[in-house]
Fold this sequence. Notes:
Layout: H1 3-42, H2 44-80, H3 84-114, H4 127-139, H5 142-157, H6 161-185, H7 189-209, H8 231-262, H9 265-281, H10 283-301, H11 305-332, H12 334-338, H13 348-359, H14 363-379, H15 383-409, H16 411-437, H17 444-448, E1 461-466, H18 469-485, H19 490-510, E2 521-528, E3 531-538, H20 545-552, H21 561-569, E4 572-578, E5 581-587
Antiparallel strand pairs: 1-2, 2-3, 3-5, 4-5
Amino acid sequence: MTGNHLQIIKKLMFRLLPIQVLLAAVGAVNGIVTSFFASNYIGIDAMSAVGLYSPVNMLIGATGTIFAGGCAIICGQYLGQNDHGKLQDVFMLDLGITSLCAVCFTVLLVCAGSLNLTGFFTTNEVLRPIFNRYILGQAIGILPMMIANQLPAFLAMENQGKRTVQASVVFIIVNLILDYVFIQVLRWQEFGLAMASSLGAWIFMAVQAQYFFSDKSLLKISFGHISTGELFRIIAVGFPGAASYLFQTLRGLLVNKMLEIHVGSMGLSAFSAANNLLGIFWAVPAGMLAVSRLLIGISIGEEDQRTLADIMRVMFRRYLPLMFAVDLYIIVCAEPLTSLFFHDPEVPVFRMMADGLRILPLCMPLSIIEMHFACYGQASGKQVYVHTLSFLDGVLCVVGFSYLLIGVMGINGVYTANVLNGIVTTLYIIFYAWFKKKHMPRNMDDLMVIPENFGVPEEDRIDISIHTMEEVVTLSQRIQNFCEEKGIDTKRAYLAGLSMEEMAGNVVDHGFTKDKKNHTIDVRVVYKDDHVLLRIRDDCVPFNPEERRVITEGNDPVKNIGIRMIYRMAQDIRYQNLLGLNVLTIRI
């Protein structure tokens, strides 16, 4: 394992990180806006209503995640197979089934709020009517929010991720303006608080959905027949990724009930405000996971053991120190941050929230470890491992420790339970590796429990980094020599070298010159089962060789002859562009 390869992975992960953190953060800002107006302009009980609604919101989000996650994976497969018909079918099925679920949730909330059927959430006679009015306002936004949360994955497939950022920014602005109008001008109180975010959700959906009505989009929103053939497959694929959200829904309900009993509405308000404020900081781990999820998926698909382990090394060596720095900032600024919501330091709710901002951040680095190993487990098919982690993290530890500590420590017992939860899940990861390997993990491969038959030995693969055209010139001969050493016939060995030289040369010509950034091409050649697998990955502008081949068909027979020859002779060629990475895989 070379240090150069680790540096490439680190550079790649940090290049992709800012946009993913931004995508995660813009959603959290709306929670802060809602909390700010609730605590400053309505009152503590309104803030408590926001906290009581949080598990409901988590359940709705979990349902959407099942479909979004399952469809993203299945559509990625169809995208690689260039099957646009099935891609369109899954896209419309996703929107159709999500809309149906949204309507069901809307009906349930309208009935619960209008008929006062919310005793399951709170028995407080003062808080309950406030909560009823709040969920009636939220019900109006369930449909657009669930649909809007499906669209980013499909926009990313069409390299339109910036549209989601634009929609999120518009959402924040609309929410801020409507909060002021509904609460300060119209005096709609908690109903207006919910209505502001609901109407903002319709705008959020419209800005994203508009692209799918344009001529530019591959996928189209059409209201004709919707095929349901992939429904059960979508649910089966998407459920593991959403399981943690379902567990967290249950956790939220149980913790809220304990807070109401032992601390009261003031504790609910402080806990909700602390969590909503920390939501913007949780965007950092969420962005880290989004980057790692893509690279883990690619690495497993390529059986690239070295890159898989290097992703985790970067997580431990770079992501965790960065998260500790963020935590230190939150802890030091706990009281100034609390004053955004509660102005009087003498009021108990101020102290409760400030304590939360001093304790809760300590669980964030531990959560990064848990999320990364859960993601790796899901991608590698370790479902029991993933569900155990999700159950420990989502329900058992937080609820169990909260139950034991809240009577002694009050609300600080709930905060401490979240930190203890992170310690337990980290210990589970270590002890699981110890159990599977029959010894304490000695290195990253041991800790990840990477199967011995995963990937190929060092001698059956080569990894080459390209920075200049001069390095491209020597690429073909290096690959050809490698293939011939493995017994590959001269024709295929020559084609393998030509393929990579042609593709790498196109990237340098058409990618390196588009901007002033420093770019790297990562070339990987694998020999396995008498086949040669070639992968080229770069961080330049999108470049699909299939489109270049089609465009030049029938023109000058010499132009792009390398690309044409590769498509005629290769057994399989797949191109994808995800999170700004071009990934081309060729099997010869």
